[in-house]
Specification:
This protein has 458 residues and is an alpha+beta fold. Helix content is 48%, strand content 10%. It contains 21 helices and twelve strands. It has helices at residues 33-44, 54-60, 76-82, 137-142, 166-172, 181-187, 190-202, 208-211, 214-217, 226-237, 242-251, 255-258, 260-267, 272-290, 297-318, 323-341, 346-358, 367-375, 379-388, 394-408, 411-420, and strands at residues 17-19, 49-52, 69-72, 86-89, 95-100, 103-109, 121-124, 127-131, 151-154, 160-162, 174-175, 205-206. The strands form three sheets. It has an eight-stranded mixed beta sheet. It is elongated and about 80 Å long. It binds adenosine-5'-triphosphate (ATP) and magnesium ion. Residues 53-54, 69, 144-145, 149-150, 188, 190-191, 235 line the site of adenosine-5'-triphosphate. Adenosine-5'-triphosphate is lined by residues 53-54, 69, 144-145, 149-150, 188, 190-191, 235.
């Protein structure tokens, strides 16, 4: 029934430590009601029941976990028998989800570490593709990724169980992979990204042994499932620590394996505005996440891939391709290369292409075009993007200011203003040499377009 708590080493994985309630910071008040109900119900039914993973780690660090994972010796079927509000999910990794309104508590049965030949644990080229062999809590601990992710909070006596030195690493703020790093990254290359992400989120250092293989094993990420890399990219950039995650990816040389085109322009010593656009976008996104405002991956990917797309578009224009066509070709090609690696869903790539495609159009401020642009369903995102690009050049800064004012005006007022004092055309992307043959836009007299700020005094 109750798991035993003598500090006797019952496994071959090394000694474990029990940290009693009085010596750690986890209070039941910080655990969600759903998780507590699951833990108590399992315990009352005679099973072992532990809170585990990121929730325990974050609680020990004084944080507020969003989701709570439970580990138990009950099988998924036994869990389902205990809860009406329960469904079993996953084939590669079978789990129970217990649902309480909007909260979902994930309940996993302890995984074993040995292959019993049943095919329930399956490695292909050293990669873990199936893991449904059940085992003991010690075995469950060592198959987790980092030591600080392998701490178990026991509902039976509120102690924390540590079989891998996670407590010491937590105190020293070190992220350390459990076991042999080479083998663990071969099993699952995404663990490299998890290392960078968690180090960024927690403000931890990655242990030298844990980071050392990145240089040689980073290329394994190219073989990771693109759909999984998209999920991981969302966690990296849209969880409130996007800027720190981005910097960690760069620092640890992992960016080039996930966003190769972005890494290439940054490594090539791109102008500071390229980095500025990306970092500002990430900082903005982080702020929005903290304020609980909605965020879209489209915007972020648009920023990460903007410079590669812009350069390609410019190269095509220089070769004589018509600008609109050059832009659409460039956008499509850059996105194709990227989605090959990170499966950005179609609805987002469409949005990205629209945000990009509208950028040259901001420079065209004739009355008809300006009013039409304002009506575009993607205007807001494209405009926000223009504002983030403002540091690219003085002309863009002027353009961004102009559009900031323009969209605040009533449509009639704007139409009137455009009719009486049209702004100068701004040299922008798409002002191709080829276009000079047939200038569509009349050049305005100098002086007719005072600086945008000058239009502000209605
Ligand atoms: P987050 O704060 O992002 O939720 P987390 O550590 O909780 O971080 P999850 O993806 O929710 O991350 O995973 C829950 C737990 O499952 C982890 O703490 C870890 O113990 C284990 N785990 C997750 N992914 C892996 C992996 N790739 N290899 C081994 N163990 C993993
Ligand atoms: Mg988690």
């Amino acid at each position: 029934m109750n798991p035993e708590h003598s500090a006797r080493n019952t496994s071959d994985t090394g000694a474990f430590r029990i940290i009693p309630r009085a010596e750690h910071a986890i209070s039941r008040k910080s655990i969600s009601n759903g998780a507590l109900r699951v833990l108590y119900r399992l315990h009352e039914a005679g099973y072992q029941a532990f809170l585990v993973g990121g929730a325990v780690r974050d609680l020990l660090l004084g944080g507020h976990p969003k989701d709570f994972d439970v580990a138990t010796d009950a099988t998924p079927e036994e869990v389902r028998a205990l809860f009406r509000n329960c469904r079993l999910i996953g084939r590669r990794f079978r789990l129970a989800h217990v649902v309480f309104g909007r909260e979902i508590v994930e309940v996993a049965t302890f995984r074993g570490s040995s292959d019993d030949g049943s095919g329930d644990r399956h490695l292909v080229d050293g990669r873990l593709v199936r893991d449904n062999v059940y085992g003991t809590i010690e075995e469950d601990a060592v198959r987790r990724d980092f030591t600080v992710n392998a701490l178990y909070y026991n509902i039976a006596d509120f102690s924390v169980r540590d079989a891998v030195g996670g407590m010491a690493d937590l105190e020293h703020r070190v992220l350390r992979l459990i076991g042999d790093p080479d083998q663990r990254y071969h099993e699952d290359p995404v663990r490299m990204l998890r290392a960078a992400r968690l180090a960024a989120k927690l403000g931890f250092e990655i242990a030298p042994d844990t980071a050392a293989p990145f240089a040689t094993l980073g290329p394994l990420l190219a073989e990771a499932a693109p759909a999984r890399l998209f999920d991981e990219a969302l966690k990296l950039f849209l969880s409130g620590y996007g800027l720190a995650s981005f910097r960690a990816l760069e620092r640890y040389g992992l960016l080039e394996h996930v966003f190769p085109a972005t890494a290439r322009v940054l490594q090539a010593g791109a102008a500071t505005h390229v980095r500025e656009l990306i970092e500002r976008t990430l900082a903005n996104t982080d702020a929005r996440v903290r304020e609980d405002k909605p965020v879209t991956p489209a915007f972020l990917f648009a920023a990460l891939l903007w410079e590669p797309a812009r350069r390609l578009a410019q190269a095509l224009i220089d070769e004589g391709t018509e600008p609109t066509l050059a832009w659409s070709h460039a956008g499509e090609r850059v996105l194709r290369e990227q989605t090959h690696r990170v499966a950005v869903p179609r609805r987002f790539t469409i949005a990205i292409e629209e945000i990009w495609g509208m950028q040259p159009r901001f420079a065209q401020r004739s009355k008809k075009r300006a009013l039409r642009l304002l009506e575009h369903p993607r205007f807001r995102a494209a405009y926000d993007f223009l504002v983030l690009r403002a540091s690219e050049s003085a002309a863009l800064a002027e353009l961004a200011t102009w559009w900031t004012e323009a969209q605040e005006l009533e449509r009639e007022a704007l139409a009137e203003r455009l009719a009486s004092a049209p702004p100068p055309s701004t040299p922008e992307e798409g002002e191709a040499p080829a276009k000079r043959k047939r200038p569509r836009r009349r050049r305005r007299k100098r002086g007719a377009g005072a600086p945008a700020a000058g239009h502000g005094g209605d």
